Structures are given as structure tokens and as C-alpha cells.
Amino acid sequence: MPRKIDGDFVTFTQFIQEEQNRHPEATGDFSWLMSGVALATRMIGSYIRRAGLIDVWGDQGTTNVQGETVKKLDIMANDALKRTLGYRGNVGIIASEEDDEPRVISEVEGEDSYIVMFDPLDGSSNIDVNVSVGTIFTVFKNPPEIEGAAKSVLQPGSKQIAAGYVLYGSSTVLVYTCGQGTHMFTLDPQYGTYLLTRENITIPQHTPSYSVNEAYSHGFPEGYRRYLDWVKLEKPRYSSRYVGSLVADFHRILIKGGVYFYPETNANPEGKLRLMYESNPLAFLAEQAGGAASTGTQRILDVMPGDVHHRTPLVIGGKRNVDEVLDMLQAG
Ligand code: AHG
Ligand code: MN
Ligand code: MN
Ligand code: MN
Q1: Residue limits of the Fructose-1-6-bisphosphatase class 1 C-terminal domain (predicted)?
Q2: Whole domain around residue 189: which residue ranges?
Q3: Are residues 115 and 152 located together in one domain of the fold?
Q4: Which of 262, 274, 277 should be mutated for ligand 1, with most atoms under 8 A from CB?
Q5: Considering the domain boundaries, does residue 203 fall inside one?
């Protein structure tokens, strides 16, 4: 059931506005920006719900800067976010998994503005088969002293002002943090608005569950292979779950616990997941929920990006689950 505060249901916009009053860094009309993100996700959600009825399935016929085949829905989702954020005057720069370069979209002289980065459609391989996909976003301050979009976006995840994702699953949920806990909202399809359904989520510290694309394990660093042998040979209660949409795999862990990892592989020696659009926002949400996120050797939120499409290995989940993996990596 949606949470009531003072007898009223709380919408996402109300919640942001109240948090903004308490958040010293969130100057400018932050709730205006977030309402743009929420609007875009409602648009994307409606495309997904009508997939099959409108022309959404299949490939666009191009390859993106990540070297991936672009799906039609990747482009539609990217356009929805760019269009809605383009009208928000306080958004200075946007960067997307689907675009080659970050872009300045408004020059706000002498005023605070924000950088918004996003993975418009996470889980592309699941679009055509009716499996959950998501949208991930993160917000940084646009540093006025730095010239040029390419340099302004190069900030560690510890500087995120807010981050979140929307999971288009059996229901549509928005999970959000601005550094004061991790909270969940559920889209009420009748009202067309996100209502607060879980406040201050905490990830269970340990759950006997792991999530990884094990088909690549022969190419993982040895510690990960040792971990996989250990859970299978010595921990008979462990189970494995892997959707292949990071947002869906992470959401399960946020609610039920466990660990997700996507290490270095033969095909992706730096790891596959993108720091700015995937690892950072989920690491921020995980830490705010009492969990942890690491590259295997370093806290994700401390990684200094080399460029906007920087990739990292990712180990994320309940604190003790993550520690079990890291202990295996450190065992030499
Ligand atoms: P995207 O669809 O945004 O490119 O992200 C794909 C990512 C992520 O969603 C998922 O967890 C991972 O790629 C799956 O990769 P594998 O198919 O290699 O397991
Ligand atoms: Mn992609
Ligand atoms: Mn993704
Ligand atoms: Mn994507």
C-alpha cells in the first residue's frame, strides 16, 4: 500500500520537494529536474507496455559508441529523456550511454545547474522477449569553474547529488536516493503518478544468493572462479538468479539481498558495465540502503572516471555478501 504521511499519499514530486528543503546542495529547482526524469520514464513505460502494438521491437540498424547493436527502444528512450530534460532550464549538461559525447543543453549564467547522465534503456537484450528492463539516472552539480561538457562530467560517484532507476517490471517502480536513504515509489497507472511505497529500504546484510553471467566464468579473474566453486561445493543453500537486465538483478538484491557481480571478462577486460550510467547510480543506492559496491579492488564511488563511457567491474549487494566475494579476490 502507498505510504501516507499526515493522512495523505506522498507523490514523488512532493517527496523531492520536501527533501530539497532539507538538502543544502540541492539548490535551483531540483524538483523541476526530477519531474522531467519521471515524465520521461512514464513515456518510456508506455512504449514498453505497447511493445508489439507499436513499432518498438528489433534493431535500429546502427551501432552505438559502446560497440553495441542499438535497439529501436534504446533510441526512443534516449529521445524521451533528451526531450523532457531539454525543456528544463536548470539542466546544463546531459550524457547518455547512447550518445558519443556529453552535451551542453543550456548555459545558465551565474546560476546553479546540473549534469544529468542516464542509461535510457537498461537490459536491451530483454526488450524483444517481454522481460523486465529499466532506466538508470544520476545527477551531479555542474561545476561552474570547469569549461566544457567533456571535462565537467568527470567526477567520482561520491559527488552524485541524486540517483535512481525505474524498473518496468510487473509493476513500474522508481527507486531513488539523494543521499538520505533509498526510497521506492510505485507508478499508479490510474493516476499516472509515482506514489511512495517503501521508505528507507535496507538491503539484507547476507542472503545465500548470487547473480552473475556464469557462461563467461572461464575468463574471470581467479578469485571469482574460486568464489563460484566455494558456493557450489561448500554452500549448498546458495541459489543463483540472473535476469540479464542489471536494473532487475539489482532490484531483486535491494529487496531480498544477495550479490551481483560482472567482473573483467575476455570480451570486456575492463568490465562491461559503465561507471557513469550503471555502476555509480546503483552503488549510491546500495550504500544508502546499507549495502556495498566495489570494483573488486576499490569502492565504486571513489573511482575517478577517465572518460564519460568509462567501464568498471562491479560487485554489488548486501555488505556481507560483497565481503565474501572480496575476500576470495584478496586470497591471492
Ligand atoms: P544495456 O542494455 O544498457 O546496454 O546494458 C546491458 C547490461 C546490463 O543490463 C546487463 O546486466 C548486462 O549488460 C548483461 O550483459 P550480458 O548479456 O553480457 O550478461
Ligand atoms: Mn546498451
Ligand atoms: Mn545498461
Ligand atoms: Mn542501455
Answers
A1: 203-329
A2: 4-198
A3: yes
A4: 262
A5: no
